[in-house]
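We were asked to recover a plausible sequence for a given structure. The inputs and outputs are reproduced exactly as logged, with field labels preserved.

PROBLEM: sequence recovery
POSITIONS: 488
GIVEN STRUCTURE:
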């Protein structure tokens, strides 16, 4: 039930994010989050199961909506230098919340835990009331004065924000003709599909490390390994490991980059999965007693290493990228879509893991996740660009056909008005060249309408140069140079 509710919540949050703003959306999510936990806690007194289901439904919906909302808010408020570190704080906060729930839940009844958890939505509500809206959203809604004040507040009173503010304005300016309602066909452009495909792929490989299967069945794995550790304390140990590793990765993500953390995390995770699978394979061959006697330490060590490696990269980097990769115009749609896909994968893994243990044994299930993780390494290595230290505007350019890999506009190509039979003209860095003619060319004049007249041995050739527009719509303007009408 929780993954499905979260899936729906993530899908429904797109409209509020776009039309009401990131800050107001986060504030609006706090009351239902509080009420959901309150209803679950009061179920003990009311004795109505419906209250429990409604409370679980509400918290699930809000949980799904909070993930993309918080990541988008943080990424749009952060400076490029520390954006990764700040974005990773959501994963650290999540790990801390899970650990707190594990510790409290080990000593009190579930309904008391639910009532205690009502504190956290109130803390979020109080904090967000005093936070500004993101400058990017304010500028996109023509509220420049508020955007400048918000940016100045975020960067500090003594910081010069003129260059950054101008860059955000320029990025918004290129979309000034795109303020109509987003059409479905716009989402099929390469500049949208490329980052979306990368984000969905990384979300898939994150979940198919088997993380939620391992988390949900940690106690079972401990028992299968013959461990005598109480299940409650086992989850607390894992929670501490996750928190420490996730917090540490936040300091590395802006130092070493997203790619390094993902590749390193996936490599160690795959080794841990291989080791866990090997133990359960030997258990099937030797019998539980002999395998536990000789290799009982292996699954416990592998489990700890698994959580350290996962928390050090795969835990937070996919969500950092979710707030970075998407164009600002489509971010409020693609972010929730990516988060929803992640939750869908979570549901599939959790529901299928018990079946996998029966159909392919425990070792087969772990080796399956290992193979998925190895494929994920190849995916990240060849397809994921590094976003460390780049502005959101520069990241957007990485996926646009208008720009080179270094973010510079591509050199335009030109064609003469008497172009035929494959003859082309181009403007190079050293001047103007025409092929296949070897005649020397001289620029004769430059017309007000941006056409250029060139004189050769064959006469005058007129070229119309259409500048490459810094636009999202690649189909309408592909940056090419077309022949100008003959004026002679």
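RECOVERED SEQUENCE:
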């Amino acid at each position: 039930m929780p993954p499905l509710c979260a899936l729906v919540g993530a899908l429904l949050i797109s409209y509020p994010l776009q039309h009401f703003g990131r800050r107001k959306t986060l504030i609006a999510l706090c009351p239902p989050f509080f009420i959901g936990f309150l209803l679950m806690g009061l179920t003990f007194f009311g004795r109505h199961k419906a209250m429990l289901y409604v409370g679980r439904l509400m918290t699930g919906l809000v949980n799904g909506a909070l993930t993309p909302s918080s990541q988008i808010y943080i990424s749009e408020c952060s400076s490029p230098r520390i954006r990764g570190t700040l974005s990773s704080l959501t994963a650290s906060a999540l790990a801390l919340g899970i650990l707190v729930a594990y510790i409290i839940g080990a000593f009190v009844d579930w309904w008391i835990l639910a009532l205690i958890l009502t504190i956290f939505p109130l803390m979020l509500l109080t904090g967000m009331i005093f936070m500004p809206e993101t400058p990017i959203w304010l500028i996109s809604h023509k509220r420049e004065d508020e955007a400048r004040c918000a940016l100045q507040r975020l960067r500090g009173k003594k910081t010069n924000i003129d260059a950054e503010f101008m860059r955000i304005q320029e990025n918004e300016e290129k979309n000034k003709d795109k303020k109509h309602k987003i059409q479905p066909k716009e989402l099929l452009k390469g500049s949208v599909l490329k980052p979306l495909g990368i984000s969905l792929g990384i979300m898939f490989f994150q979940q198919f490390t088997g993380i939620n299967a391992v988390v949900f069945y940690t106690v079972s794995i401990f028992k299968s390994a013959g461990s005598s550790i109480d299940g409650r304390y086992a989850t607390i140990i894992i929670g501490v490991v996750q928190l420490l590793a996730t917090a540490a990765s936040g300091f590395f993500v802006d130092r070493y980059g997203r790619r390094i953390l993902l590749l390193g995390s996936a490599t160690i995770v795959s080794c841990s999965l291989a080791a866990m699978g090997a133990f359960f394979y030997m258990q099937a061959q030797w019998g539980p007693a002999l395998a536990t006697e000789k290799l009982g330490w292996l699954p416990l060590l592998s489990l700890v290493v698994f959580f350290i490696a996962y928390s050090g990269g795969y835990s937070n980097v996919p969500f950092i990228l979710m707030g970075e990769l998407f164009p600002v115009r489509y971010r409020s749609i693609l972010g929730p879509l990516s988060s929803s896909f992640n939750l869908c994968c979570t549901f599939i893994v959790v529901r299928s893991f018990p079946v996998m243990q029966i159909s392919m044994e425990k070792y087969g299930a772990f080796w399956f996740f290992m193979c998925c993780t190895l494929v994920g390494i190849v995916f990240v290595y060849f397809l994921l660009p590094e976003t460390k230290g780049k502005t959101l505007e520069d990241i957007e350019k990485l996926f646009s056909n208008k720009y080179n890999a270094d973010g510079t506009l591509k050199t335009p190509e030109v064609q003469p008005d008497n172009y035929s039979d494959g003859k082309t003209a181009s403007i190079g860095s050293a001047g103007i060249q025409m092929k296949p003619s070897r005649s020397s060319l001289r620029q004769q004049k430059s017309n007000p309408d941006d056409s250029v007249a060139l004189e050769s041995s064959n006469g005058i050739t007129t070229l119309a140069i259409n500048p490459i527009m810094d636009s999202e719509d690649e189909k309408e303007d592909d940056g090419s140079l077309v022949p100008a009408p003959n004026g002679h």
